[in-house]
Please model this.
Amino acid sequence: MSKDSPKKLPKTFFVKNYGCQMNVYDGERMAEQFTDQGMEAVDDKSQADLVVLNTCHIREKAAEKVYSEIGRIGKNRRKDKSEQPMIAVAGCVAQAEGAEISKRSPSVDIVVGPQAYHNLPEMVAQASGGKRAVDLDLPGLDKFDALPKQRKSGPTAFLTVQEGCDKFCTYCVVPYTRGAEISRSWSALIDEAKRLVDGGAKEITLLGQNVNAWNGEDNKGNMQGLDGLIRALNRIDGLHRIRYMTSHPNDMTDGLINAHGDVEKLMPYLHLPVQAGSDRILKAMNRSHSRDSYLRILDRVRAVRPDIAFSGDFIVGFPGESDADFEDTMSLVAEVKYAAAYSFKYSPRPGTPAAVMDDQISPSVMALRLERLQALLGKHQLEFNEEAVGRTCDVLLERKGKFDGQLIGKTPWLQSAHIDVPGLEIGDMVRVELNEAGYSSVTGKVLMKEAA
Ligand code: SAH
Ligand code: SF4
Ligand code: F3S
Model:
């Protein structure tokens, strides 16, 4: 494939992330490669010589956003052709739609899949020579070996421990865009976690499309699951908090459940998507867990960690979902009372079995169901935040708030906490008493400036 217009080698870049936290992690790793090459990150996309769109294919809307964004960048093009910004499409849309992207949007110079972005520096060189670069290999873990070792970090960091998915839920594109389940090695992860802590991280969130499917040999040659890895990370000095996401119910081992009871730095929060409350729909989704088996897992986690906060993902309007099936989802939600949740209208994805199932649900029915579900989830989220008022806990300050002097951090239960006290800095861990609650945040009164 060739393009006729060479472009200057980019000096500045901008990475725009869509989708899940794994894309955020990948986006950070792409940026590190560019800075290693002497390029400079810019905050304003229109000033960048290279724009990377790190895309998501999970729902139709997410995928369509990419094309409108490419169109917008196209409009801002500079007069001299060789001065035009280079456009790279990375992530899951790149993997799913491949070379079709450059056919639909000829201004795209680079198409790179989520397992191949360690080759970006070479691809940029190729594209600046006027040749379109495409790399959609799914080679497993090569990229991690090729990426820069040093990790700079804010107070909270993501660490991808596992990639891909073998579960093949009938609605989902992830097994096709991210490939099969693979775990990174124990030593690579302990090493990267230590580098992140040296680089400033106090909290690490372990990531994977099925993070709790992680397994590997420890440095003594014993097989370990995610709980073993978490216990090892718990021993790293300077690391204060550990989280993980996203988990699949079928990979919630006894070991991992028990870790919630006795690993000091593991935070009391579990994101465990259920998707639906009806066994008939769960079966059609190929979730391979039932409503009851899911609820039993939550009971067991609660037994070892009574203050655990649960969050979940939900899909309404899966093909064939009757009113009664939807009521099953509502009653499951009423039973669990999630602290937070993500809920979506079913979106048919090309190539997935559900997209060609009979009895697709109309958009208007889906809209009504989503509205009812979100009202209930929102009510529980507010109640969870209100029940936290009066508790004393640590907050790790992560970013500036809207108002002068205000900082925002997270409670152990992943609530956003607003703190208005002069003299505090991002990265401080403060002991607070929670004193007010809203839908999406709580506020805290600082009791001690240096907690834990
Ligand atoms: N691995 C995780 C999350 C995968 S994607 C898991 O197994 O749960 C994040 C969420 O997007 C899913 O949990 C699901 O709720 C939603 N999702 C995935 N495919 C979807 C589709 N085709 N339509 C609507 N929502 C979808
Ligand atoms: Fe998608 Fe299911 Fe895999 Fe989650 S477990 S990534 S929803 S196929
Ligand atoms: Fe989206 Fe890919 Fe993540 S499809 S949700 S960016 S794994």
Remarks:
- The CA atoms of residues 94 and 363 lie 27 Å apart.
- Residues 19-20, 22-23, 56-58, 91-92, 173-174, 177-178, 209 surround FE3-S4 cluster (ligand 3) (CB under 6 Å).
